[in-house]
Q: What sequence folds into this?
């Protein structure tokens, strides 16, 4: 009545077949001397960025005016070093891919690009955006408080609102996206997606005082443009209609595929707005469950027609 | 080919600007001598409460009748101390906010309120609800087993059903909500929201034998009232229609804004029921994708009209 | 101004009542000498399986052709031992349940079944599927790249796409399901559900080159059959219409309750397809928000009728 350890003798042969599969099936391994950004490091960076943005809520307790400068100064210094390293990894990896240099051979291949210096420059450029980001995020927190009768305080919003978490991470990722950092911005927004169920692409351009309530299931595509004071509920999709293909049969990447949402629009739960040429005019209200593939002028209320329901008695 | 550490010389000046922003942008920091509840502590408490409610599943293995009393007795003792501390923090913080005492100055300001004693009283009152909660949760587990043909055993439900996880956490949070504990109940339900994609406000009143299947995207608002034997599927919203504002232009907080769902109702995936005066009569069935903003009498089946679809051949 | 430790004197009596409730309310505890599979162990196994499938992305850095064999060989050896133990636990638990042997008394009760040997056999049979799984998963990664204009590289897909994570875990769980391992497959898919908001039952049969974009809110039921090259968006339900009950009033478990989706079908966001006899013909496109409870022939485009919306000016 026990497992038979002689049966383990077949495992080395299985290992050989698995390793052989790395040769044939090479799109889904990363056997190389140039490491990818580390998920663990990147998520540690996000955690510390939130400490800098919102001190006193989560990590270090008992911060006050007399000690916060030391704490934040130390975090900023450490973030500089760690971001330089991770951005450098991301830049080198993308370069290796685009030049089709076999990533595996790196270390022997000459390159004239100083990835470490570029990584450092962009890390500093990114950290320089933090004071401005705090201003934007305070407007978001206030929009959440003003927009949700269930919110007891802005502390509650910073502490546990998933919509605020998602927009915080997206605004950080968007700065990295504007600095043309590869892969890391998407790692950030997919991390937020896992935590919140809210999937906002790092490329989306989002105005001030943005509020997503509840949020699970929200999708906001790469080329969305959203003006100030927009409010969105759970399950809303701001997506693409269809993807044009180029003459080579490959998808065209980089075109505007997602809608434009003007100032002050409210979009209720599970509405879908699809297409790059769709504009929702300022002040409009899109009702729950509406699917729209064309523009609406300013100040329009769009709802589902009532008679689309059927009522009968239960048998 | 390296980062230039002289460039780090600009970081102290950046730190100064970040710290300066804490003065101007004061809604999103918590620089104060009175700590907020600790997320880490609160989630540790939730983990141990689940050990008490469902012993033998997750944490300590090999529990049996001869040792479970020691284990649970020790947990209850420790939960008392840790909950007293966290509830005390939550109560003091809310008090400081509501009296507009600058939280920062605490320690010098006199207060006549004994938050530690109140925290302890409510921690004990909360722990006293656990035997009754086990009874309610066993009925929920049975409802899940009876309602899902894919469930192989109630163990599977306790072990890994997200709907059972969400209702467990909400029932714990609801007891704290009834004891008028600030912020902590919402921390609990937002933690469950992150795990499960199910967002149930701590204030929602939910009857016995409640089952949410799949669950991602479900939203149940603060002032919902749900009777016994209700079954809900993924993507269902029990939400608000619109938020009345008071004479000061601020949202009115605390009114009934979310629907009432009577005994035995089934609500299929992605249906939305919106409004505080909406009552779904007992025994009714609300079909997938239906959006309702008015009441339906008992034993009504509501579905989407068939002809709202268009069929054509693919080009 | 402190908590009163004399009040703790009531805690032992409370503990007694909680322990007493384990006798009466016995569906939601596992007080027994035969341990259930350990969540922590099972999730560690999943993490290491992903290292074997996709080396170099997440865990060990700097893997290359000269060292990957040692690393993977060691992982496979360790996975054998740990999976044998966990599968053995799952098999013994299910056996105890089905024979209604009181699990509590195990160790004294004789059984002729050698669970350790069966656990080992199935662990090895499972590990033997890994080379084939790598082939299938590479096709999935390629389908994601080909289907999403926002994807910058297949590395990005392996690294952070939730749809790829969900199908990876489901394909692992499905192999365990085919080997008739109880409870563990569902632990895996519910873990993926928590991470991604995508809920695919281990029993679902899914063809090659499958891609779920965004994914939050997707539900794919136990008896779904999905052919090759199918693409699904967030919020899609492939679910059941209603559950037949047997003459004993209990649900009939194991019947085909979920739809069949043929080759090359695209299903846009929040569409629901419900029922075990529903077949979506090859090449069909199901539009956003459509609810279908009947079959459609090959090459059909199904969309929501336009006139179901009402437009008015905001007051």
A:
């Amino acid at each position: 009545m026990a497992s038979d350890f002689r049966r383990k003798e077949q495992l080395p042969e299985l290992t050989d077949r698995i390793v052989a599969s790395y040769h044939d099936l090479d799109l889904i391994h990363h056997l190389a001397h140039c490491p990818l950004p580390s998920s663990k490091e990147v998520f540690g960076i996000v955690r510390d960025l939130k400490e800098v943005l919102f001190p006193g809520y989560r990590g270090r307790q008992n911060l006050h005016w007399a000690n916060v400068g030391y704490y934040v100064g130390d975090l900023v210094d450490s973030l500089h070093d760690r971001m330089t390293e991770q951005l450098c990894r991301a830049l080198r990896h993308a370069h290796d891919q685009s030049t089709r240099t076999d990533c595996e051979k790196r270390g022997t291949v000459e390159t004239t690009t100083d990835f470490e210096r570029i990584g450092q420059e962009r890390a500093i450029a990114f950290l320089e955006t933090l004071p401005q980001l705090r201003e934007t995020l305070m407007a978001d927190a206030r929009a959440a408080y003003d927009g949700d009768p269930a919110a007891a305080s802005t502390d509650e919003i910073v502490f546990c609102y998933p919509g605020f978490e998602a927009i915080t991470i997206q605004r950080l990722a968007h700065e990295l996206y504007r600095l043309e950092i590869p892969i890391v911005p998407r790692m950030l927004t997919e991390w937020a997606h896992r935590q919140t169920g809210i999937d906002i692409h790092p490329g989306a351009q989002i105005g001030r005082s943005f509020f997503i309530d509840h949020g699970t299931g929200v999708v906001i595509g790469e080329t969305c443009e959203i003006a100030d004071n927009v409010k969105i509920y759970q399950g809303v999709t701001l997506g693409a209609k269809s993807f044009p293909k180029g003459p080579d049969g490959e998808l065209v990447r980089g075109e505007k595929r997602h809608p434009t949402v003007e100032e002050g629009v409210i979009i209720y739960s599970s509405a879908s707005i699809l297409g790059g040429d769709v504009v929702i005019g300022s002040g409009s209200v899109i009702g729950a469950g509406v699917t729209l593939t064309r523009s609406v002028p300013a100040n329009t209320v769009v709802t589902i027609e009532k008679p689309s329901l059927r009522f009968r008695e239960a048998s």
About this structure: The CA atoms of residues 37 and 86 of chain C lie 5 Å apart. Residues 104-109 of chain C have pLDDT under 50 and may be disordered. The first strand of chain C starts at residue 199 and ends at 200.
